[in-house]
């Protein structure tokens, strides 16, 4: 039975459900071409960081409160198990993280039968300062790319990635900026990922018209990137404030000038022939929708 939506875009290419992904993932029967997930790192334990020249607390909310190692493993194992069931046989999943959770994710992926394809190192061109001066400055995050089944071929747009990299093979180290002010027009999410990272992931591993799922949707960056690339999106988010932010961000790109402005900030999209993407999207069949409109 499809899940009721919190929000659906006019063209039904951006669907958002409000609730706990552990429950909602079990309530609909739909297979996705790709999943992107930025799960909680469970780091909100009173630490501090530097933002815009000011020392701030890193506590993000109750959803990010610390857990034991065993609890973290159980948490990652369960959501990855549920997600695997929602992937097409040739589908892939991307999971972002830092050293705090990425090794747990890798172990769970292997245990569940996924095949790890790459571990991308995202090197931030503008990392935050190290205010303690007692260790090297953190400037990277990791993104694991894995496919559902070891022996079923996955999608990889190799030629496009090579084209975007000056006609050289793209490596597993990506030098891309962290979140910019131009991406925060509808408010700030504490762990918001940049559109430049998500668009590259989507362009690399999906085709126009494909369906993408984000079980920890946050401010909707995956969905915005998906729509800018001519793909379709379904997200699940448990915090209503972030659902409202996602809705506002999607409504914002109904304005063609704002949409063009966002594309202008994203290097990979500037190089892609957007007209061709949109033309192929219009001919791709929708099929059954993963969510239905609320009554």
Report on this structure.
The chain has one domain: Rossmann fold (3-Layer(aba) Sandwich). The protein has helices at residues 21-24, 69-85, 102-111, 158-163, 195-205, 221-228, 240-252, 256-265, 267-271, 274-283; strands at residues 3-4, 7-8, 14-18, 32-37, 48-51, 54-57, 87-97, 115-124, 140-147, 173-176, 211-214, 232-237, 291-292. Helices cover 32% and strands 23% of the residues. The protein has 295 residues and is an alpha/beta fold. Strand 2 and strand 3 form a beta hairpin. Helix 2 crosses helix 3 (102-111) and helix 5 (195-205) crosses helix 6. A nine-stranded mixed sheet has the order 2-3-12-11-4-7-9-8-10, sandwiched between helices. It has a two-stranded parallel sheet with strand order 1-13. Strands 5-6 form a two-stranded antiparallel sheet. The model has no long low-confidence stretch (mean pLDDT 88).
User: Any idea of the CATH class?
Assistant: Alpha Beta
CATH topology value: Rossmann fold
Instruction: Report the CATH architecture.
Output: 3-Layer(aba) Sandwich
Content-based structural category: alpha/beta
The number of distinct helices, counting runs of at least 4 residues, comes to 10
Say how many strands there are: 13
Summarize this, please?
By secondary structure, the protein is of the alpha/beta class. It contains ten helices and 13 strands.
